[in-house]
Specification:
- The complex is a heterodimer of chains A (about 110) and B (about 120).
- Chain A has about 110 residues and is mainly β.
- Chain A has no helices and twelve strands.
- In chain A, strands 2, 5, 6, 10, 11 and 12 form a six-stranded mixed sheet that branches. Chain A has a four-stranded antiparallel sheet with strand order 3-9-8-7, with no helix packed on it. Chain A has a two-stranded antiparallel sheet with strand order 1-4.
- In chain A, a hairpin with an 8-residue loop joins strand 10 and strand 11.
- Helices cover about 0% and strands about 55% of the residues of chain B.
- With about 120 residues, chain B is mostly beta strands.
- In chain B, the strands form two sheets. In chain B, strands 2, 4, 5, 6, 9, 10 and 11 form a seven-stranded mixed sheet that branches. Chain B has a four-stranded antiparallel sheet with strand order 1-3-8-7, with no helix packed on it.
- Classes of the chains: A mainly beta (about 110), B mainly beta (about 120).
- At the A-B interface, strand 5 and strand 6 of A face strand 5 and strand 10 of B.
Chain lengths: ~110, ~120
């Protein structure tokens, strides 16, 4: 079955520390992969996406993610976290064709301590 | 552009009542999506439209749920009759392209928090 797993429900990091949010997927074909961020009371905003090509993708707000096919992973990273990064982060996967819909993970809530 | 606009932001109703959620997509976007978010199930796609036509409604949980898109600038999600288990945040999202089924980039509204008592 197609699925997305974000193993960490809640992560707390210190401001200025590095961050890695994990995402693993189960998919029958080459997937399209996304990371979205949701601030409290807001909708989701796209951080970055991977369709093909370079497996290290850069996104907005200084985030990057690396697609590792052998590990079925698409982890999100940021070298230095800012207090404004506190939010919930969602990994999503979708099929490579023109039909189908995105499957979202359950999300990882990020807290940033001063 | 004002982004995707959803109304109301909050809705509290009693079981059995009809609920209508509204969405105005970003002008020029030709794909529109309705999602539901709960703690237990996360984000689930209910239905999506391309050029005002429903493409996939397999996520609509029951016949109590219906969605329409009468024109490119407006969509509704209706629940009739509503039940307590329908309590959730309902998001509308739009996309500027049909490429990849409209998933090139989704723009989300701020959601409607629905509480059914």
């Amino acid at each position: 079955a197609q699925s997305v797993t974000q193993p960490d429900i809640h992560i707390t990091v210190s401001e200025g520390a590095s961050l890695e949010l994990r995402c693993n997927y189960s998919y029958g074909a080459t997937p399209y992969l996304f990371w979205y961020v949701q601030s409290p009371g807001q909708g989701l905003q796209l951080l970055l996406k991977y369709f093909s090509g370079d497996t290290l993708v850069q996104g907005i707000k200084g985030f990057e993610a690396e697609f590792k096919r052998s590990q079925s992973s698409f982890n999100l990273r940021k070298p230095s976290v800012h207090w404004s990064d506190a939010a919930e982060y969602f990994c999503a996967v979708g099929p490579g064709g023109s039909q189908g819909n995105l499957i979202f993970g359950k999300g990882t809530k990020l807290s940033v301590k001063p | 552009d004002a982004g995707v606009i959803q109304s109301p932001r909050h809705e509290v109703t009693e079981m059995g009542q009809e609920v209508t959620l509204r969405c105005k997509p970003i002008s020029g976007h030709n794909s529109l999506f309705w999602y539901r978010q709960t703690m237990m199930r996360g984000l689930e796609l209910l239905i999506y439209f391309n050029n005002n036509v429903p493409i996939d409604d397999s996520g609509m949980p029951e016949d109590r749920f219906s969605a329409k898109m009468p024109n490119a600038s407006f969509s509704t999600l209706k629940i009739q009759p509503s039940e307590p288990r329908d309590s959730a945040v309902y998001f509308c999202a739009s996309s500027p392209t049909e490429k990849h089924g409209g998933r090139e980039k989704l723009f989300f509204g701020s959601g409607t928090q629905l509480s059914v008592l």
